[in-house]
Amino acid sequence: MNSKDAYNVWVLPGKPKYGCVYDIMKDAKYEYKRSVRDVTRRPSYGDHFRDDLLKHISSKDMKASWRT
User: Fold this and answer.
1) pTM value?
2) Radius of gyration of the chain measured on its C-alpha atoms
3) Structural domain boundaries of the chain?
4) Half-sphere exposure of residue 34: CA atoms within 13 angstroms, side-chain side
């Protein structure tokens, strides 16, 4: 179950503060945050961002550089 599905299941019974549904939502949220953290810590993540930004700025494409 992905994070969005777990959130929707948690909202249906009124956002309980404890119990099985709450545990599912918290576990999915933790897994999502861990996945984002793992991806952003890869060395290639920052290099790709900087390369794209530099390419747009050097070509004087300001709209694309702001989107980056």
Assistant:
1) 0.58
2) 19
3) 3-67
4) 8
The answer to whether the beta carbons of residues 3 and 28 sit under 8 Å apart is yes
Residue written as token pair 């390419």: 55
For residues 15 and 9, what is the distance between their CA atoms, to the nearest angstrom? 9
**19-49 burial: b if 16+ Cβ within 10 Å, else e:** eebeebbeebeeeeeeeeeeeeeeeeeeeee
64's tokens? 């694309």
Whole-angstrom Cα distance, residue 32 to residue 48? 22
**In contact, 58 and 50? CB cutoff 8 Å:** no
Question: Do the beta carbons of residue 49 and residue 68 sit within 8 Å?
Answer: yes
Query: Which tokens is 66 given?
Result: 């702001």
pLDDT tens-digit series, residues 8-18: 999 999 999 99
